[in-house]
Amino acid sequence: MIRQILASRFKVLTLAIGIALANEGYAKQEEAHDSSLLSMSLAQLLDIEVTGPTRDEQTFRLAPAAVSVFTHTEIAAMGLATLDQLVNFAPGYQSNRNGGSPIYAPYTSRARRISGSSSEILLLVDGQRINDPRTSGASSIVPQFPLANIERIEFIRGPGSALYGSNAMQGVINIVTLSNQNRASLEVGSFDHTALNFFNSQQVAHIQIDSFLDIQQDGGDNYNIPSSTSPDGTVATQDPKSRLSLNIKAQKNNTQLKLQHYAAEAEDFYLNGGIANGVNKHKSELSALELVQTFRLDNSSSMISANYTRSSTLRIQQLLPAGSMRDMSTPSSDAPFTGGTKDNVYSEYELQWTNNWQLNSANKLQFGASYRHIDSPELQVTTNYDIKAFIAREFPITYYGKQTDGPPAQHASTRDILGVYLQHQTTVADKLHITLGARHDEFSNIGNRLSPRLALVYTPTDANTFKYLYAEAYRAPSEAELNLTDNPQFLGNPNLQPEVVTTSEIIWIFQCEKYSLTSGIFEHQFTNAIVQQSIGERTQQNFNMDQSPVRGAELELALQATPKLFVRANTTAIWDKPETSYREASRLASLMVSYQHQQWNANVGAYWHGETEMATNGDDSQRTQVDAFTLATAKLSRAINSQLNVYLKAYNVFDSNIATAPESSSLQQGIPNRGRSIQLGFTYHF
Questions:
Q1: Angle at CA of residue 191, ends 117 and 644, nearest 5°
Q2: Strand pairing partners for 194?
Q3: Residue 25 has what pLDDT?
Q4: Which GO terms describe its biological process (predicted)?
Q5: Distance CA 291, CA 253 (A)
Q6: Sign of the torsion angle spanned by Cα atoms 187, 248, 74, 120
Q7: Which of 46, 107, 503, 546 is deepest in the core (most CB within 10 A)?
Q8: Where is 404: in which H helix or E strand?
Q9: With b meaning 16 or more CB within 10 Å and e meaning fewer, what string describes 508-542?
């Protein structure tokens, strides 16, 4: 059905292009709706207002954080489709396929990650937490988050718990979605790729409604992966996937209702480190509903919000290949031994009250409170053989013939979190900007935590800005980390305590007419770190342990070489990091070049990840090197007229053979990434 819809849209848009090109009335080209990135001056780019670092509007230069910003126009010019692609162009961030699922590519900030859900980084979409209540992370429940609906995205590196509480430990990704858009886009290309997104903005009974729908599907790339169990030494597989994203905002005066829904499916390829065509299946969904009421006075504003998030994940994988159970099952069966988890619903409720008070021209005060409740029901295992009898070696093993409920894989649990925060911003003599704040969070059954922050931003001249940042942040253990049980791969630890990071950072921003240069050095000290350790063959468990610090530096350049040519580049060097971060690259770099000529825009980009390591033979101490790689991107677009844009884009332009470190320690080779993909697309404004 999705393919039929997309095919019909393709015919309509192709016809529209033909009419536009044939009509002499279009001989004089008009400017497209999407203004060019290059129409902005460098000063304007630096003065883009961000909200993530302080919960109020601040310019990039004065924001008390290490932050990089990408606008909708810039993202559209780059031709990237998903968040896991874009993070590689932000300093300090990286994202890599890990074999947990065909669509898993967890992201990290400054080379520190424990789980596959990226729970050390908080994802905010229009101010609402987007995370799985069970794992506390976003990258596994909303893999491949779409970029088409983003007005602005802020990559904040370092702690954010003084404002946001748990999970804002290594970074915050703050996304603001688009409004007032009326357009449709269609894209077709490699791997039988089809994609459609649709924006609509209208007023109904004095209610402003903004809607966004994105549907994508492809048949996947083809792989031949070395296998010791295959007769010819390799196994052929593919990684088909599909996803759907929906975002609706309805606003009347100061009242807003927001709905978000994300769904993704994938088959075959790797699932938890194992390949099984026709068996492996992943399906995840997250829905979020929020009601927001804003109150405004001359010098202050308040917001009260209530939101509800629910998520579910269904996973089925092969535990033993076909024929393995023939002589030990009743009735005897050659069917592979399959296991998985039911798509139980995990939910979170949050009430939030935030305030911004402009005391005078030099002083601002932010304060607020929040209450969160997490409901994590029992995680149910499903198998097609009696897994309890198999573990106990009670032969013969009953064959059910279909996926049947087995023992629980995670105990049911609930959690209540109460948080309050206070932040004061002051300016001294128009040169020194001071931010001082703290947040206190109290968790049921875990304890409480105070997270302070101090930021000094000094602007001695228009060209120079210096920042000193100090903050403490934490991450509470997730429901999965505490309560997993009877799991052959991961076991929960009910004695886990929150892990804490203390960060110090110095940043210098130099800005002139042609370019800006941002450089910084940082140190993260970890206390009571949650560390994943092997406790037996192929079984992992988390413990609170001492952990080495992360120390490094970042450099970011924005260069407007000519009015038509814009360059953006950055590099990151990590010289100290925890031993457990061997899967993360210590050296990163990226480059983006955009050139505008009349109705044409050409954009090329590339990012480089240094070498990493992977564990083998089921033992974290046995490591092998995973090679460094470079991945290139390109996009060429043309405005046919004021309504129609056409573009051609490519990802992994040079068809590089890229492998990345797997999460599993049972593999002998890295996880292969997709080869070159090329897409043709059309955008029609109405």
A1: 95
A2: 188, 217
A3: 40
A4: siderophore transmembrane transport
A5: 13
A6: negative
A7: 107
A8: strand 397-410
A9: ebebeeeebebebebebbbebbbbbeeeeeeebbb
Report the alpha-carbon distance of residue 394 to residue 390 in Å, rounded: 6
Q: Which residues contact 565 (CB under 8 A, 6 or more apart)?
A: 38, 593, 594, 595, 596
Identity at 221, one-letter amino acid code:
D
State whether residue 236 is helix, strand or coil.
strand
How far apart, in whole angstroms, are the C-alpha atoms of residue 102 and residue 658? 15
Taking CA atoms, 353 is separated from 32, 55, 277, 308, 356, in Å, by 40, 12, 49, 15, 11
On whether the CB atoms of residues 608 and 628 are closer than 8 A, the answer is: yes
Closest CA to 129 of 347, 443, 303: 347
The rounded distance, in Å, linking the Cα atoms of 379 and 572 is: 39
Please spell the DSSP secondary structure of 418-431, one letter per residue: EEEEEEEEEEETTT
Classify 145 as helix, strand or coil.
coil
Residue 2: left if φ>0, alpha if ψ -120 to 50, beta else—which one? Answer: alpha
Buried/exposed code over 100-136 (b: 16+ C-beta within 10 A; e: otherwise):
bbbbbbbbbbbbbbbbbbbbbbbbbbbbbbbbbbbbb
Is CATH 3.40.50.410 the classification given to domain 2-685?
Answer: no
Cβ-Cβ contacts under 8 Å for 15 (sequence gap 6 or more): none
Q: Report the C-alpha gap between 227 and 234 in whole angstroms.
A: 5
Q: Give 489's DSSP letter.
A: S
> What is the model's pLDDT at position 230?
67
**Phi and psi (nearest 5°) for 86?**
-70, -35
d(CA 409, CA 454): 42
For residue 80, the surrounding DSSP H or E stretch is: none
Enumerate the domain spans of the chain: 2-685
Instruction: Give bridge partners of residue 35 from the DSSP assignment.
Output: none
Among candidate residues 596, 585, 457, the one with its CA nearest the CA of residue 518 = 457
- Exposure string (b/e) for 154-185, b if CB count within 10 Å is 16 or more? bbbbbbbbbbbbbbbbbbbbbbbbbeebebbb
The Cα–Cα gap between 481 and 134 comes to 9
Q: How far does Cα 90 stand from its chain's mean position? A: 12
Task: Tell me which residues of the chain have a pLDDT lower than 50.
Answer: 1-40
Asked if 195 contacts 243 with a C-beta cutoff of 8 angstroms, the reply is: no
Q: Is 295 left (phi over 0), alpha (psi -120 to 50) or beta?
A: beta
Say if CB 408 and CB 485 are below 8 A apart. yes
Q: How many helices (H) and strands (E) does the chain have?
A: 7, 44
Q: Are 127 and 474 in contact (CB under 8 A)?
A: no
Whether the bond between 331 and the residue before it is cis, its omega within 30 degrees of 0, is yes
Residue 231: asked if its preceding bond is cis (omega within 30°), the reply is no
Euclidean distance between CA atoms 113 and 171, whole angstroms = 11
Per-residue CA distances from 499 to 166, 376, 473 (Å): 10, 21, 9
Report in angstroms the alpha-carbon separations of 398 from 306, 380, 404, 662. Answer: 48, 19, 11, 33
Q: What is the pLDDT of residue 37?
A: 39
Say if CB 532 and CB 114 are below 8 A apart: yes
CA atoms of 372 and 365, how far apart (whole Å): 23
Give CA–CA dist 446/553, Å, rounded. 34
Q: Is 390 strand, coil or helix?
A: helix
* Gap between the Cα atoms of 471 and 476, Å rounded: 17
Q: Cα separation of 520 and 466, whole Å?
A: 10
Residue ranges of alpha helices (H) inside 258-346 are none
